[in-house]
Amino acid sequence: MPAFTFEKISPPIPPGPIAPVDQKPRGVIVQMLDRFVEARAWRAASQDKVETSGRDSTAPK
Question: Is 10 helix (H, G, I), strand (E, B) or coil?
């Protein structure tokens, strides 16, 4: 039988609601990458429209 025991101490309860975390502004490199990705997606979508509109629907594949 143990000679001593440890008392479990619960963490302190916060006094009120948690303050919202301010988001940092995005870095310049991340903004540039977003622009490149957006432009590439736009080009891919417009290229897909050109490919599908130029096909003859009655021709065999």
Answer: coil
